[in-house]
Every structure is written in C-alpha cells, then in structure tokens.
Amino acid sequence: MAVKINVRRAKLADSKAIADFVNLSGRGRGVTRLTIAQRFSDVGFILAEQDDRIVGMLGWQVENLVARVTDFLIAPAFDRVVAGRALIEMMEEQAGQLQVEAIMLFLPSKPSQELVGYWELFGYRRVPFDKLPRQWRAVALEWNPDASNVMIKQLRKDLVRQPI
C-alpha cells in the first residue's frame, strides 16, 4: 500500500511546528518558533505531512538562477525515499517556475557513500567545483566559501550567458 503524504509550502504560522519537528529529531537544540520565523526572510520551506503531522521538511533559496538546499530533514521513523522524493519534486517544480538553471547542495567534507547515493536517486551528481559554470561557482562561493563537495541537478539546458 502506498504511503499517503501531503506536501505543501510552509507558512509563517507553521514556525512553531517546524521548530518542534527539528527539536524532536535531535538535529536541533533549542530551536525556537522565533528562530524559524526569522529564517523565513531568507529561506522557503516545504513540508511533508502525514495525518497533519510533519514527517519531513526542506528549506531552499534562490539566487542568480541557482537554487540551493539549505535544510533537509525527515522523521527517522518515516520512509526517507518517499518523503524525500515528494519534497524534492515540489522544490524542483517551484524552481522550474522561477527559471532556475540548477539546484545545488553542499555535502560535508567527508560525505558517506549512503548520503551521496541518496541524492543520486533523485538525479543529483557530484561535480568538481572547478567544472561548474563560472556564474554557478560565484554563487556557490557566496553561499559557502569552502564549497568543495557540491552536488548539482541541472534543470535547464539553456543557460543564461548574459544579463537579461
């Protein structure tokens, strides 16, 4: 039987529920509603819910036609491929509407093969930093000066080569 989840854009009113979800996961310590509310000025959140309970969240932002994943968390007891696919597909759909060229995520300095394999399931691939298009490198360095472990999913084949 297929797992039924609802995926939607988070609203500011979800700040407390998101903070509670992060704190219960063990990934956050003392994350407050206010902390999350302040992040809404920089990050868009997408929530995966089952029976009106958050089972996953994805935070992302866009700059210069490149999006990046800022937050990604799935409840340990939930199927991480099902929830991840739903969250990632919604982000990619919204990114496509914004004419985003690629989605980028930064890996830890020594990522596990399990982590890399997880993102490869969704079409992301590791790309050496120096092989990225110049404009993507500039955005990556702005977001993360130590950007060396990057995974990318290119959404558009036709890249913007000069300002519109």
Structure report:
The protein is α+β, with helices and mostly antiparallel strands. The chain has one domain: Aminopeptidase (3-Layer(aba) Sandwich). It contains five helices and seven strands. A seven-stranded mixed sheet has the order 1-2-3-4-5-7-6, with helices on both faces. Helix 1 packs across helix 2. The longest helix has 18 residues. It starts with 5 loop residues before the first strand and ends in a 10-residue tail after the last strand. The model has no long low-confidence stretch (mean pLDDT about 90).
Features:
164 residues, alpha+beta, Aminopeptidase, seven-stranded mixed beta sheet, 5 helices, 33% helix, 26% strand, globular
Quick description:
This protein has helices at 15-25, 33-39, 80-97, 113-120, 134-143; strands at 6-9, 44-50, 53-63, 66-74, 102-106, 125-126, 150-154. The protein has 164 residues and is an alpha+beta fold.
